[in-house]
Specification:
- This protein is 59% helix and 0% strand.
- The N terminus and C terminus are likely disordered.
- It has a domain of 154 residues: Orthogonal Bundle (Cyclin A, domain 1).
- The longest helix is centred in the first third of the chain and has 38 residues.
- By secondary structure, the chain is an all-alpha fold.
Length: 280
């Protein structure tokens, strides 16, 4: 007997379901690929949408440019200052005497008076100033008829020579500046009341002692060459009186060139004023 096998065919529904499963299993990778591609395209689009605008003037370059501009402006300012005229003060020398009132200063820009004041240059030798000093003493003490200019100069030179020979000083004191200083003291100290040449010599040598003590190169000087017996009692009294009255002027003579020039001019003018006294 033969065996009969009976095979029942699958239903249409079952076949369709199997086919659908196969299709889905085949189509799933393409869906993943499609989604990944969309994400990649979207990401690229977003990146390209963000455009970066470069800074035309980065901070370092901007600072360097500003520094360069400031430096150029500074150079231009310096050049303008150098081209501008620089005012230079011109010292003036008063022409009036020390006892006269100073003249009123001219106004700026008032015609010829606005021109720069003239510079006065004066000069004289030591011998000339000594002669002027002697003429002044003779003119001031006119009652002493026997006095002459040469005698006054000899009083001065004898003291200076004695100090050199005795080793009290290494160089002579008699210079133009020191003669002007002596004149300042004598002009304020000597007067016509001197009764004799000895009294006048004592007062004159007291002025010399203070001049040497103030203007000399040595620390101290001895009293003996300056002090004479006839004037011994009043030597210190006269010295203290001169210091009390003339300390300010003595300091000013060394610190104020204008004042020194005034006294210098006044001393030099004594030569002309004293010419008549030389023939007494």
């Amino acid at each position: 007997m033969g065996t009969v096998l009976s095979i029942s065919p699958a239903t249409k529904k079952a076949i369709d379901a199997a086919d659908d499963k196969g299709d889905k299993s085949l189509k799933r990778p393409s869906m993943f690929v499609s989604l990944s591609w969309k994400k990649l395209v979207a990401s690229s689009a977003k990146k390209s949408a963000k455009k970066v605008t470069p800074n035309p003037n980065p901070p370092c370059a901007l600072v360097a440019q500003r520094n360069s501009d400031n430096l150029r402006k500074s150079h231009q300012s310096e050049e303008r200052k150098q081209r501008a005229p620089i005012p230079v003060p011109v010292p003036t020398v008063p022409t009036q005497n020390r006892n006269d009132k100073p003249a009123a200063a001219p106004k700026q820009g008032s015609g010829p008076s606005a021109v720069s004041p003239r510079r006065i240059v004066i000069q004289a030798s030591t011998g000339e100033l000594l002669r002027c000093l002697g003429d002044f003493v003779c003119r001031r003490c006119y009652k002493l008829k026997e006095l002459n200019s040469g005698e006054v100069i000899l009083w001065f030179r004898n003291i200076d020579r004695t100090l050199l020979l005795q080793g009290w000083q290494d160089q002579g004191f008699i210079t133009p500046a020191n003669v002007v200083f002596v004149y300042l003291l004598c002009e304020a100290t000597l007067d016509e009341s001197a009764a004799s040449a000895a009294e006048l010599q004592g007062a004159f040598q007291t002025c010399l002692y203070l001049a040497y003590s103030y203007m000399g190169n040595e620390i101290s000087y001895p009293l003996k060459p300056f002090m004479i017996e006839a004037n011994k009692d009043v030597f210190w009294e006269t010295s203290l009186g001169i210091i009390e009255r003339l300390s300010g002027k003595m300091l000013r003579l060394n610190s104020d060139p204008h004042f020194f020039t005034e006294v210098f001019q006044e001393l030099k003018s004594q030569r002309d004023c004293g010419e008549a006294n030389l023939d007494r």
